[in-house]
Amino acid sequence: MSIKEKIRVNPIVKKDLKVISRSMKYSWGLFAYIAVLGIVFIFTMLVIGGISSYRGNYKNTDIYEGYVAFFPVIGVAQLCIISLIVPIFTASSISGERERQTMDVLLTTTIPPYSIIIGKIASAVLRVMMFVIASIPLMAVSFVMGGIGWATLFEYIILAFVFAIYAGSIGTFCSAVFKKSIPAIIVSYIIYGAIYGLTYMPAIFISIVGDIDDYVPVFLCTLINPVHEFLMFFYDKISGENLMEYSVSSGNYPAFIEWLFSTDVWIVISCVFQLGLAAIFIWLATLKIRPGKK
């Protein structure tokens, strides 16, 4: 048996990638993505150069020390772009099949519903990761001149991969619920906004009340918030300090809680929670497209 026969590729992924490879739309989209990041790159370089020149004690090494800023700037910029394009990729995956009247034909094949959902998400994640990989040369400036280790880049790619799965599962769920692509995309953005914003409501409430010392519930709410996760990641890698450690140092917490919030284990647990929530969205989407479901 050949290697090709041993490796079974999801037929949905295989079909979608073939369609993408034959279309110039994705190539132009990738070009636009790199162009936007290139503009952000040039603007950041001008800002770093301007700040270094404005300082009275300007040194030739100042501008190289400023190159570390490329990593969070480019990273945040491409995460914002990914947040915008993932709903377009995934929220029209199932509803698009219905609009083209091919969903019923797809359900009559031997492909199980869960494989259809996973295939749609996987094809979207692969497209997104192509965008991320294409931006590595721009981000590499921070690693070559800014003093950031290459392990940090690898960690960032893993976090971006988890984020793509998380966002893709939400978009695919909305696509399975709604019959039209436009409502599915809009609701996907609404869910993203709720996750990004409402998870900070307990923290805002505690800051207003001011006499509550137990911040653990606040931290638990932000476990499913990728914005908070990347904020902790970038701050830790750039400054070498941990914001979570400052938050728990003022309270009387068990040693395990202090260790959890003062290490990168917090980010790992956040990824686990996000993947768990993604699995729930995948399961719900599978229930919505089962044969016989309206």
Task: Write a concise synopsis of the structure shown.
By secondary structure, this protein is mainly alpha-helical. It is built from 17 helices and no strands.
Essential attributes:
about 290 residues, mainly alpha, disordered N terminus
Cα(first) to Cα(last) distance is 42 Å
Shape: globular
Tell me the structural class.
Answer: mainly alpha
Number of strands: 0
How many helices?
17
Largest sheet: none
Strand content: under 5%
Helix content: over 70%
Report the uncertain regions.
1-7
Radius of gyration: 22 Å
Mean of residue pLDDT? 76
The SSE string, one letter per element, is HHHHHHHHHHHHHHHHH
Structure description:
With 294 residues, the protein is mainly α. α10 (150-177) runs antiparallel to α14 and α14 packs antiparallel against α17. Helices cover 78% and strands 0% of the residues. It is globular. It has 17 helices and no strands.
